[in-house]
Each structure stands twice: as structure tokens, then as C-alpha cells.
Design goal:
With 62 residues, the protein is mostly helical. It has three helices and no strands.
């Protein structure tokens, strides 16, 4: 590390709480994770599911 990098007055975890508030991590079971190539594909499927679930609630409310 370069000598001009001085972390002697740094505070460990200073922004950890603020960062955690904006983070929403979900752990998928391995068999579920294998079915998707990336987080974008999971989001597409979940959004489609939510649209379908909302339509199902509207129909059952009649």
C-alpha cells in the first residue's frame, strides 16, 4: 500500500448501518439459483408472478 494512504484515523463500519438499510438480500436455495442465470432473470419472473397474483386477487374479490 502506498505511504500516502493513511487510514490511522479511519472508523471501521462507519457507514455499515446506512448501507444495510438500502440493501435487500435474499438467499436462494441452490436448486432455485441454478434455474436462473442472473438476478435480472429472477426479477423478470418475480414481476410476472406479482402481476398474475394481483390479477388473481381482483378476480376473487368479486
Amino acid at each position: 500500500m502506498k505511504p500516502e494512504y493513511d487510514f490511522s484515523k479511519g472508523v471501521r463500519g462507519k457507514y455499515a448501518k446506512r448501507f444495510a438499510q438500502g440493501t435487500n438480500l435474499v438467499l436462494l436455495d441452490p436448486d432455485i439459483a441454478e434455474a436462473f442465470k442472473d438476478s435480472e432473470s429472477i426479477n423478470v419472473i418475480l414481476r410476472a408472478y406479482l402481476v398474475g397474483a394481483a390479477k388473481g386477487r381482483k378476480k376473487s374479490g368479486r
